[in-house]
Every structure is written in C-alpha cells, then in structure tokens.
Amino acid sequence: MYIIKFGGSVITNKTKENCFKQEVVDDLVKAIKKANKETIIIHGAGSFGHIIADKYNLNKGHKSSDQLLGFSLTHGMVQKLNSLVLDSLHNNGIPAVSIPPHSSLILNNHNPLKFDYIIFKEYLDMGFTPVTFGDVVLDKKLGFSICSGDLLMLLLAENLEPEKTIFVIDEDGFFTSNPKEDKNAELIESATKDQLNGYVASKDRHADVTGGMQGKIETIKKIAELGIDTILLNGNKPDRLFKVLNGEKTKSTIITGGQK
Hints:
The chain is globular and about 50 Å long. The chain is of the alpha/beta class. It is built from 9 helices and 12 strands.
C-alpha cells in the first residue's frame, strides 16, 4: 500500500483563490489508475484553504467569535476542493471515498490527541481508495487549529505501515537551494534522515499556514524513523508518479527510512 499526498501547490494555483488545476489532477489520477496499486490519497488545501485560514488566524486557535465563520468558510472551501479531487478519481473509475479529518482526528495544541485510523484500514480492506485532506479541526487546548496534509501523512504512516509514502510537489524533489531562485541548484537524488538535519528550505511566497516545505522536511524525517522510504516527485510530470508506483526509476528524491 502507498500513501500519496498531492501538494496544494500542484493541484491549485496558490496565487489565485480557489483555482483548481483540473488537467494536472486528471493526469495524476490516470497514473494512479494505470499503476493499479492500493493507495490512500491525501491532498493539501492550496488556495482553497490557506488564504482564508491565514486571514482569520485559525492556526493560533480560538481567540474571537468572528473566527467561527472563518473556520466554517475554510472547511467549506477545502470540502469543495476535495469534491473536485473525488470527481476526478470517480471519472477515472477509482472507487474513492472521502474521510474528512474533523471526523477522525482531534488535536491538542497542534499535536494529535485522538486519531481513528481504523476507518481508513476498513475502507482499504473493502477495496476503496480513502481520500483525506488538510483541514481545520477541533483542538482540545486551542479550541480549533489546522491539521495539515503532512500530519495526516505521518499519522497514517505510523499506523498503517505503507510500502512507501509519496509527496507529489511542484518541483523535481529536494534541491541544494531553491531552484526557483537559483539556476545552479542541484537535485538531491537520495538522502538519509540524518542528511536532512540542518537542511533549511526557502520560504514560499504564498500563504501557507502549515509550515510549507520546512514542515514537510520535519514530517519526512519522522517517517524515515519508522523505517519507511519517502519519495518526492514532480506532479507536473505524471509519468513519474506511475513509474514510482510501478517500481521503476525516475527523476525524484528518495529519503531512505532507517531501522525501526
């Protein structure tokens, strides 16, 4: 089984609110269908969630009554994005079912307090493809906060032990520096958890209330500690996702998991 995360920067245009990249998602879904592997899919909120969540400071917890509307608006928008992703999966013959985070997860000061991973396993065992996503959720200490897709990736990896986790991003993988700003940046084809220590990702210019690439690095290091390999690949090149799922070599970064 593979856990795949579609990054928000891949499936949406983060500079334009609620801008869905239909063709990109359709091509990625076709790659998954062609590979015919058991998968769980997670997707980021992209421009459907981060902009509103940032406006209402939702990740800082419940501070004022107007945030309740902000919470509801954010949840509504990421549900719309989730429906668009589901439509693509259904249109390509994949029996996908949505599992919203607020129905299976409660946080405590941003950290997991309760997580019902069994529901994911039960759907997998039935032959479904579970789909979940970054969203706003209840938080015992803060009232509410944000659950990132990266946190869901880690929690599902901890409990369901996938063969690999795959981050589908808008670059070829990790680079020695930001390839959008440095033409001499070199792709890091493989690394261990320890080699990621000290690696500092450049900040994204667009709103991201969940830590961006730096948060992703911390998540991947924790997944590596579970003994699970993580692959980062370019979602704008859907054939690379197919090749990884099919066990073929392709342009990407692999972070190798250490011993459990």
